[in-house]
Design brief:
single chain, alpha/beta, Rossmann fold, 2 domains, seven-stranded parallel beta sheet, six-stranded parallel beta sheet, 13 strands, 16% strand, globular
Length: 389
C-alpha cells in the first residue's frame, strides 16, 4: 500500500481574488504531485491561507482547504495549528513575495509566525520558489535569518533573491529555481485561422491605476500610469488589424482599489471596440484565455508569466524588482521598468516588441528550456525530502 504524505501548503489559496496567488497554488500542487510520484508516495494537500469571498477554483480529491485568520496565529488551537499538526511536511510559498518587511510589521510578523509554528513543532519546512526580502529593520533581518537557516530547503525564484540570501549568510540550504506558475496547466488554443485579427492582450493593474492603496502613486512610478495606459490603448487602436483585449488578473468585486476588471470595463466604455475579458473562474481559465492571444503586456506579473509560459510574446511592465528578477534570470530582457523608464521609452519598447513578435517567440522558447531545468531540480529535491520522511 502506497504511503500518504500530508503537506501543509502555507500561504497557498484556492480562492484568492488575486489569480497570481491561485496560479502559484495550483502550479505548486502539480509540481508536488510529480515529486510524490518520484518518491513513490501519495500526497494529500492542506491549502492554508485566508478565505476570499469568491468560490473555490475547483475541487480536487487530494486538496483540502483549511482557512485561518490572524487571530488563529497566536492561538494554541484552531485551523492553523490543526493543519500543521496533521502535516508531515510544511511547504510555504509566502504568497510569492510577502516574506519581507516592506509591507509593514503586521504582514511580516504574520508570515514569519506561521514559520515559527512549523519549526517549533519539528516539521520539515520548505520555502517554495519565492522572492525573499528585503528586510529593512533589524528585528526583521534577525528573525528572518533565524527561520531561513532552520528551514530544510529555501528555494529562490531569481538570481537577485539568491544573492540577497547569500548576503544574509543563508546559502547551504538554498536552491535557485524559478516561479512555479510557469507550470500552471491550461488548454492550448486551437490553430488560428489565416487572416484573422492580431489579438493583443493588455493587463491593466487596478492597484496601479488607482495609485496604490494610498491612491498617491504608492509604488513611485515615473509616469502617470492611467495616462500611459491610454497611450497604449490608442497605439494599438491605431494599428492595422488589431483586436485589443483588456485582461484582468486580480478580479475583486469587494476591494475596488485592487480590481483590474472594473478598470477594464471603464476603459472599454471610453474606447469603443476594446474587448474586456470575462471574470475568470480560476487561474487556469485566465491562462487559457491569455494563451489564445498573439501579443501581451501588463503589470500583474503572473498575467505576464501566463503569457510567457504559453509561448505568447510578452512585455512585462515592472513596478518592482521581482519582474526583472524572474524574467532576467531566465535571460528574457523584454521587461520595461515603470519606476524608472519614461512613458516615451516604454512606448518605444512596446512598439519594437510588437513588430518583433516572431523574435520574442524564439527568445521565449529558448528561455523555457531553462524553466524546465530549474523546476525539475526543485521537483527532485522535494522528492528527496519526501523519501526522507
Amino acid at each position: 500500500m502506497t504511503k500518504t504524505v500530508t503537506l501543509a501548503l502555507l500561504w497557498h489559496s484556492m480562492n484568492s481574488d488575486n489569480l497570481g496567488v491561485g496560479a502559484l497554488t495550483l502550479s505548486n500542487v502539480e509540481i508536488l504531485r510529480a515529486a510524490a510520484a518520484k518518491a513513490n508516495v501519495k500526497a494529500h494537500f492542506l491549502a492554508m491561507s485566508w478565505q476570499d469571498p469568491r468560490p473555490d477554483y475547483g475541487t480536487w480529491d487530494d486538496i483540502e482547504n483549511l482557512h485561518f485568520r490572524t487571530r488563529h496565529i497566536p492561538a494554541p488551537s484552531g485551523p492553523l495549528n490543526e493543519g500543521l499538526r496533521r502535516s508531515d511536511m510544511v511547504v510555504d510559498i509566502g504568497g510569492g513575495d510577502s516574506f519581507t518587511d516592506i509591507y509593514g510589521p503586521k504582514r511580516f510578523f504574520t508570515i514569519w509566525a506561521t514559520k515559527l509554528h512549523a519549526l517549533r513543532m519539528g516539521k520539515p519546512l520548505i520555502l517554495s520558489p519565492q522572492t525573499v526580502g528585503p528586510f529593512n529593520t533589524r528585528y526583521a533581518r534577525m528573525l528572518a535569518k533565524w527561520s531561513l537557516k532552520r528551514s530544510a530547503l529555501v528555494v529562490s525564484r531569481d538570481a537577485p533573491t539568491t544573492a540577497f540570501l547569500d548576503g544574509m549568510g543563508v546559502a547551504d540550504n538554498v536552491l535557485e529555481a524559478t516561479d512555479v506558475a510557469m507550470r500552471l496547466p491550461y488548454e492550448k488554443p486551437a490553430e488560428k485561422p489565416a487572416g484573422g485579427p492580431i489579438k493583443v492582450g493588455l493587463n491593466v493593474s487596478g492597484l496601479l491605476f488607482n495609485g496604490g492603496y494610498t491612491q498617491s502613486n504608492q509604488f513611485g512610478l515615473k509616469s502617470d500610469y492611467p495616462a500611459l495606459i491610454r497611450k497604449i490603448i490608442e497605439y494599438f487602436q491605431a494599428q492595422d488589424n488589431v483586436e485589443l483585449h483588456l485582461v484582468g488578473h486580480v478580479q475583486s468585486r469587494e476591494i475596488e482599489v485592487e480590481d483590474d476588471h472594473r478598470v477594464g470595463e471603464a476603459l472599454a466604455a471610453e474606447y469603443p471596440g476594446v474587448v474586456v475579458s470575462p471574470f475568470f473562474k480560476s487561474p487556469i481559465d485566465a491562462k487559457t484565455y491569455i494563451a489564445g492571444l498573439d501579443f501581451f503586456l501588463g503589470a500583474r506579473m503572473h498575467a505576464t508569466i501566463a503569457a510567457f509560459s504559453s509561448g505568447v510574446p510578452v512585455v512585462p511592465m515592472a513596478y518592482s524588482r521581482k519582474f526583472k528578477g524572474v524574467f532576467g534570470t531566465l535571460g528574457y530582457a523584454r521587461s520595461v521598468d515603470c519606476q524608472n523608464d519614461s512613458a516615451e521609452d516604454i512606448m518605444a519598447a512596446i512598439d519594437t516588441a510588437f513588430h518583433q513578435r516572431d523574435t520574442l517567440r524564439e527568445e521565449i522558447t529558448e528561455a523555457l528550456t531553462r524553466v524546465d531545468e530549474r523546476l525539475d531540480r526543485y521537483t527532485d529535491l522535494i522528492a528527496e525530502q519526501m523519501r526522507a520522511l
